[in-house]
Protein backbone atom coordinates (compact mmCIF):
# COMPACT_ATOMS: atom_id res chain seq x y z
CA UNK A 1 0.00 0.00 0.00
CA UNK A 2 2.85 2.41 0.72
CA UNK A 3 4.07 2.13 -2.88
CA UNK A 4 0.56 2.77 -4.23
CA UNK A 5 0.07 5.71 -1.86
CA UNK A 6 3.42 7.26 -2.83
CA UNK A 7 2.58 6.83 -6.53
CA UNK A 8 -0.78 8.56 -6.02
CA UNK A 9 0.89 11.40 -4.13
CA UNK A 10 3.55 11.79 -6.85
CA UNK A 11 0.88 11.77 -9.57
CA UNK A 12 -1.12 14.46 -7.76
CA UNK A 13 2.00 16.58 -7.32
CA UNK A 14 2.96 16.11 -10.97
CA UNK A 15 -0.39 17.09 -12.45
CA UNK A 16 -0.66 20.00 -10.04
CA UNK A 17 2.71 21.22 -11.31
CA UNK A 18 1.69 20.72 -14.94
CA UNK A 19 -1.58 22.58 -14.26
CA UNK A 20 -3.78 20.53 -16.56
CA UNK A 21 -5.60 17.16 -16.63
CA UNK A 22 -4.27 14.28 -18.66
CA UNK A 23 -6.56 14.66 -21.69
CA UNK A 24 -5.67 18.34 -22.09
CA UNK A 25 -1.99 17.51 -21.61
CA UNK A 26 -2.20 14.76 -24.22
CA UNK A 27 -3.74 17.12 -26.78
CA UNK A 28 -1.22 19.86 -26.09
CA UNK A 29 1.81 17.56 -26.35
CA UNK A 30 0.48 16.07 -29.58
CA UNK A 31 -0.02 19.54 -31.05
CA UNK A 32 3.51 20.60 -30.03
CA UNK A 33 5.23 17.53 -31.46
CA UNK A 34 3.09 17.23 -34.61
CA UNK A 35 3.28 20.90 -35.59
CA UNK A 36 7.03 20.97 -34.99
CA UNK A 37 7.56 17.83 -37.09
CA UNK A 38 5.54 19.34 -39.93
CA UNK A 39 7.78 22.41 -39.90
CA UNK A 40 11.21 20.99 -39.07
CA UNK A 41 11.21 17.34 -40.21
CA UNK A 42 8.85 16.50 -43.06
CA UNK A 43 10.05 19.21 -45.50
CA UNK A 44 13.65 17.99 -45.10
CA UNK A 45 12.59 14.36 -45.47
CA UNK A 46 10.59 15.01 -48.63
CA UNK A 47 13.28 17.27 -50.06
CA UNK A 48 16.16 14.91 -49.36
CA UNK A 49 19.23 15.44 -47.21
CA UNK A 50 22.45 16.74 -48.68
CA UNK A 51 25.93 15.84 -47.42
CA UNK A 52 26.17 19.20 -45.66
CA UNK A 53 23.09 18.35 -43.59
CA UNK A 54 24.60 15.15 -42.13
CA UNK A 55 27.26 14.94 -39.43
CA UNK A 56 28.63 12.10 -37.32
CA UNK A 57 28.93 11.71 -33.56
CA UNK A 58 32.08 10.20 -31.97
CA UNK A 59 30.32 6.79 -31.89
CA UNK A 60 29.62 7.11 -35.67
CA UNK A 61 25.86 7.68 -35.19
CA UNK A 62 24.37 10.13 -37.67
CA UNK A 63 23.04 13.50 -36.56
CA UNK A 64 21.33 15.88 -38.99
CA UNK A 65 20.36 19.52 -39.01
CA UNK A 66 16.77 18.33 -38.54
CA UNK A 67 17.67 16.56 -35.27
CA UNK A 68 19.11 19.68 -33.67
CA UNK A 69 16.42 21.98 -35.10
CA UNK A 70 13.60 19.68 -33.95
CA UNK A 71 15.13 19.35 -30.49
CA UNK A 72 15.52 23.10 -30.03
CA UNK A 73 12.00 23.87 -31.24
CA UNK A 74 10.37 21.30 -28.96
CA UNK A 75 12.40 22.41 -25.94
CA UNK A 76 11.33 26.01 -26.54
CA UNK A 77 7.68 24.99 -26.91
CA UNK A 78 7.69 22.84 -23.76
CA UNK A 79 9.37 25.52 -21.71
CA UNK A 80 6.81 28.07 -22.84
CA UNK A 81 4.27 26.09 -20.83
CA UNK A 82 6.52 24.58 -18.15
CA UNK A 83 9.63 26.77 -17.72
CA UNK A 84 10.67 24.91 -14.57
CA UNK A 85 10.56 21.42 -16.14
CA UNK A 86 13.89 20.77 -17.90
CA UNK A 87 14.25 18.72 -21.07
CA UNK A 88 16.88 16.00 -21.44
CA UNK A 89 17.49 15.68 -25.18
CA UNK A 90 19.50 13.11 -27.09
CA UNK A 91 21.53 15.78 -28.87
CA UNK A 92 22.68 17.52 -25.67
CA UNK A 93 26.10 16.99 -24.16
CA UNK A 94 26.51 14.08 -21.77
CA UNK A 95 27.26 16.53 -18.96
CA UNK A 96 24.02 18.42 -19.50
CA UNK A 97 22.04 15.18 -19.69
CA UNK A 98 23.50 13.95 -16.40
CA UNK A 99 22.90 17.24 -14.63
CA UNK A 100 19.21 17.15 -15.61
CA UNK A 101 18.81 13.47 -14.77
CA UNK A 102 20.52 13.72 -11.39
CA UNK A 103 18.74 16.85 -10.19
CA UNK A 104 16.65 15.82 -7.17
CA UNK A 105 12.89 16.12 -6.76
CA UNK A 106 12.03 17.60 -10.12
CA UNK A 107 10.17 16.20 -13.11
CA UNK A 108 11.90 16.30 -16.47
CA UNK A 109 11.16 15.45 -20.08
CA UNK A 110 13.20 12.93 -22.08
CA UNK A 111 13.26 13.79 -25.78
CA UNK A 112 14.55 12.04 -28.87
CA UNK A 113 13.85 14.58 -31.63
CA UNK A 114 14.31 12.03 -34.44
CA UNK A 115 14.63 8.37 -33.54
CA UNK A 116 15.71 6.49 -36.64
CA UNK A 117 17.96 9.26 -37.94
CA UNK A 118 19.71 7.00 -40.45
CA UNK A 119 16.34 6.06 -41.95
CA UNK A 120 15.36 9.72 -42.07
CA UNK A 121 18.65 10.79 -43.67
CA UNK A 122 18.49 8.14 -46.39
CA UNK A 123 14.82 8.51 -47.25
CA UNK A 124 13.44 5.45 -45.44
CA UNK A 125 9.98 6.27 -44.03
CA UNK A 126 10.41 4.78 -40.55
CA UNK A 127 11.37 7.32 -37.89
CA UNK A 128 9.65 9.19 -35.09
CA UNK A 129 9.85 11.69 -32.26
CA UNK A 130 9.77 10.30 -28.73
CA UNK A 131 8.87 12.24 -25.59
CA UNK A 132 8.52 10.95 -22.01
CA UNK A 133 8.02 12.56 -18.61
CA UNK A 134 9.91 11.22 -15.57
CA UNK A 135 9.21 12.14 -11.96
CA UNK A 136 10.21 10.51 -8.67
CA UNK A 137 11.99 7.66 -10.48
CA UNK A 138 9.03 6.70 -12.66
CA UNK A 139 7.94 7.23 -16.26
CA UNK A 140 4.54 8.90 -16.10
CA UNK A 141 3.83 9.86 -19.71
CA UNK A 142 5.01 8.64 -23.09
CA UNK A 143 4.31 9.99 -26.57
CA UNK A 144 5.76 8.67 -29.83
CA UNK A 145 4.84 10.44 -33.07
CA UNK A 146 5.37 9.02 -36.56
CA UNK A 147 5.11 12.00 -38.93
CA UNK A 148 5.09 9.92 -42.12
CA UNK A 149 1.92 8.03 -41.12
CA UNK A 150 0.59 10.80 -38.85
CA UNK A 151 0.32 8.29 -36.01
CA UNK A 152 0.51 9.38 -32.38
CA UNK A 153 1.04 6.69 -29.74
CA UNK A 154 0.39 7.88 -26.19
CA UNK A 155 0.28 6.44 -22.68
CA UNK A 156 -0.17 7.75 -19.17
CA UNK A 157 0.81 5.50 -16.29
CA UNK A 158 -2.20 3.48 -15.10
CA UNK A 159 -4.50 4.90 -17.78
CA UNK A 160 -3.83 2.69 -20.80
CA UNK A 161 -2.35 3.44 -24.22
CA UNK A 162 -3.84 4.86 -27.39
CA UNK A 163 -3.07 5.25 -31.08
CA UNK A 164 -4.60 8.44 -32.46
CA UNK A 165 -7.05 8.36 -29.56
CA UNK A 166 -8.12 4.72 -29.99
CA UNK A 167 -7.32 2.37 -27.10
CA UNK A 168 -4.59 -0.23 -27.69
CA UNK A 169 -4.80 -3.78 -26.35
CA UNK A 170 -1.98 -5.87 -27.76
CA UNK A 171 -3.06 -8.95 -25.77
CA UNK A 172 -5.71 -9.67 -28.41
CA UNK A 173 -3.90 -12.45 -30.21
CA UNK A 174 -3.94 -12.48 -34.00
CA UNK A 175 -2.88 -16.13 -33.86
CA UNK A 176 -2.43 -18.81 -31.19
CA UNK A 177 0.10 -17.96 -28.51
CA UNK A 178 3.08 -19.66 -30.10
CA UNK A 179 6.32 -18.33 -31.51
CA UNK A 180 5.91 -19.89 -34.95
CA UNK A 181 2.80 -17.79 -35.54
CA UNK A 182 4.49 -14.55 -34.48
CA UNK A 183 6.24 -11.74 -36.30
CA UNK A 184 9.41 -10.59 -34.56
CA UNK A 185 11.31 -7.31 -34.49
CA UNK A 186 14.96 -8.26 -33.91
CA UNK A 187 17.93 -5.89 -34.02
CA UNK A 188 20.64 -8.43 -34.86
CA UNK A 189 23.67 -6.14 -34.92
CA UNK A 190 23.49 -5.39 -31.17
CA UNK A 191 22.91 -8.96 -29.97
CA UNK A 192 25.51 -11.34 -28.54
CA UNK A 193 27.07 -13.34 -31.38
CA UNK A 194 25.82 -16.74 -30.22
CA UNK A 195 22.27 -15.49 -29.80
CA UNK A 196 22.24 -13.79 -33.21
CA UNK A 197 23.76 -16.81 -34.96
CA UNK A 198 21.27 -19.20 -33.43
CA UNK A 199 18.25 -17.05 -34.30
CA UNK A 200 19.49 -16.67 -37.87
CA UNK A 201 20.15 -20.39 -38.31
CA UNK A 202 17.02 -21.66 -36.56
CA UNK A 203 14.42 -18.88 -36.38
CA UNK A 204 11.71 -19.79 -33.86
CA UNK A 205 9.21 -17.24 -35.20
CA UNK A 206 7.18 -16.89 -38.40
CA UNK A 207 9.39 -14.09 -39.78
CA UNK A 208 11.64 -11.27 -38.63
CA UNK A 209 12.06 -7.58 -39.37
CA UNK A 210 14.48 -4.84 -38.26
CA UNK A 211 13.25 -1.34 -39.04
CA UNK A 212 15.76 0.90 -37.26
CA UNK A 213 13.82 3.17 -34.89
CA UNK A 214 13.62 1.75 -31.37
CA UNK A 215 10.90 4.01 -29.96
CA UNK A 216 8.65 3.23 -32.90
CA UNK A 217 9.46 -0.49 -32.62
CA UNK A 218 7.98 -0.50 -29.11
CA UNK A 219 4.82 1.08 -30.45
CA UNK A 220 4.44 -1.37 -33.31
CA UNK A 221 4.55 -4.17 -30.75
CA UNK A 222 1.95 -2.28 -28.68
CA UNK A 223 -0.23 -2.01 -31.79
CA UNK A 224 0.18 -5.80 -32.36
CA UNK A 225 1.76 -5.29 -35.78
CA UNK A 226 4.57 -7.55 -34.57
CA UNK A 227 4.40 -9.75 -31.51
CA UNK A 228 8.01 -10.32 -30.37
CA UNK A 229 10.85 -7.86 -29.77
CA UNK A 230 14.57 -8.25 -29.12
CA UNK A 231 17.21 -5.53 -28.87
CA UNK A 232 20.69 -5.56 -27.39
CA UNK A 233 21.38 -1.90 -26.58
CA UNK A 234 18.93 0.96 -26.09
CA UNK A 235 19.53 4.39 -24.60
CA UNK A 236 17.21 6.19 -22.18
CA UNK A 237 15.47 8.13 -24.97
CA UNK A 238 14.99 4.93 -26.98
CA UNK A 239 12.96 3.09 -24.35
CA UNK A 240 11.27 5.46 -21.86
CA UNK A 241 8.19 6.45 -23.87
CA UNK A 242 7.90 3.24 -25.89
CA UNK A 243 8.21 0.85 -22.97
CA UNK A 244 5.43 2.67 -21.10
CA UNK A 245 3.20 2.55 -24.18
CA UNK A 246 3.73 -1.20 -24.51
CA UNK A 247 3.16 -1.77 -20.79
CA UNK A 248 -0.07 0.22 -20.84
CA UNK A 249 -1.25 -1.67 -23.94
CA UNK A 250 -0.90 -4.93 -22.03
CA UNK A 251 2.50 -6.13 -23.24
CA UNK A 252 5.40 -7.45 -21.21
CA UNK A 253 9.09 -6.59 -21.28
CA UNK A 254 12.34 -6.97 -19.37
CA UNK A 255 16.07 -6.71 -19.80
CA UNK A 256 18.16 -9.79 -20.63
CA UNK A 257 18.68 -10.06 -16.84
CA UNK A 258 14.95 -10.25 -16.19
CA UNK A 259 14.77 -6.73 -14.71
CA UNK A 260 12.53 -3.74 -15.40
CA UNK A 261 13.52 -1.73 -18.45
CA UNK A 262 13.49 1.60 -16.60
CA UNK A 263 15.34 1.50 -13.27
CA UNK A 264 15.84 5.24 -12.71
CA UNK A 265 19.32 5.25 -14.23
CA UNK A 266 20.67 6.43 -17.57
CA UNK A 267 22.19 3.02 -18.29
CA UNK A 268 21.74 1.44 -21.69
CA UNK A 269 19.35 -1.52 -21.64
CA UNK A 270 18.85 -4.82 -23.37
CA UNK A 271 15.24 -5.62 -24.28
CA UNK A 272 13.03 -8.68 -24.51
CA UNK A 273 9.34 -7.97 -25.10
CA UNK A 274 6.13 -9.54 -26.35
CA UNK A 275 2.48 -8.63 -26.79
CA UNK A 276 1.07 -11.30 -24.49
CA UNK A 277 2.17 -12.94 -21.22
CA UNK A 278 2.05 -16.43 -22.75
CA UNK A 279 4.17 -15.34 -25.71
CA UNK A 280 6.58 -13.51 -23.44
CA UNK A 281 7.18 -16.62 -21.37
CA UNK A 282 7.79 -18.76 -24.47
CA UNK A 283 10.08 -16.09 -25.96
CA UNK A 284 12.15 -16.05 -22.76
CA UNK A 285 12.29 -19.84 -22.68
CA UNK A 286 13.53 -19.88 -26.27
CA UNK A 287 16.24 -17.31 -25.55
CA UNK A 288 17.18 -18.71 -22.14
CA UNK A 289 20.32 -20.62 -23.30
CA UNK A 290 21.85 -17.35 -24.54
CA UNK A 291 20.89 -15.09 -21.62
CA UNK A 292 22.58 -14.35 -18.27
CA UNK A 293 21.92 -16.73 -15.40
CA UNK A 294 18.32 -16.37 -14.32
CA UNK A 295 15.21 -18.50 -14.55
CA UNK A 296 12.07 -17.76 -16.53
CA UNK A 297 10.26 -17.35 -13.20
CA UNK A 298 12.45 -14.34 -12.47
CA UNK A 299 10.97 -12.71 -15.56
CA UNK A 300 7.48 -13.40 -14.23
CA UNK A 301 8.25 -11.57 -10.99
CA UNK A 302 10.34 -8.75 -12.47
CA UNK A 303 8.11 -7.35 -15.20
CA UNK A 304 4.85 -5.55 -14.77
CA UNK A 305 2.09 -5.11 -17.27
CA UNK A 306 -1.25 -3.33 -17.41
CA UNK A 307 -4.28 -5.58 -17.88
CA UNK A 308 -6.78 -3.69 -20.06
CA UNK A 309 -9.46 -6.03 -18.68
From TrEMBL:
Positions binding Mg(2+) 2 in this chain are 90
Q: Which GO terms describe its biological process?
A: inositol metabolic process; signal transduction
Q: Which residues bind Mg(2+) 1?
A: 112, 114-115, 238
Superkingdom, natural source:
Bacteria
For this protein, the record's Gene3D superfamilies field holds: 3.40.190.80, Fructose-1,6-Bisphosphatase, subunit A, domain 1
GO molecular function, a single term: inositol monophosphate 1-phosphatase activity
As cofactor, the record names: Mg(2+)
Entry EC no(s): 3.1.3.25
Q: What class of enzyme is it?
A: hydrolase
Q: Which UniProt keywords apply?
A: Hydrolase, Magnesium, Metal-binding
Q: Which InterPro entries match?
A: Inositol_monophosphatase-like (IPR000760)
> What PANTHER family does the entry give?
INOSITOL MONOPHOSPHATASE, INOSITOL-1-MONOPHOSPHATASE-RELATED
UniProt lists the family membership as follows:
Belongs to the inositol monophosphatase superfamily.
Give the protein's recorded name.
Inositol-1-monophosphatase
- Native source organism of the sequence: Grimontia celer
Q: What is the lineage of its organism?
A: Bacteria, Pseudomonadati, Pseudomonadota, Gammaproteobacteria, Vibrionales
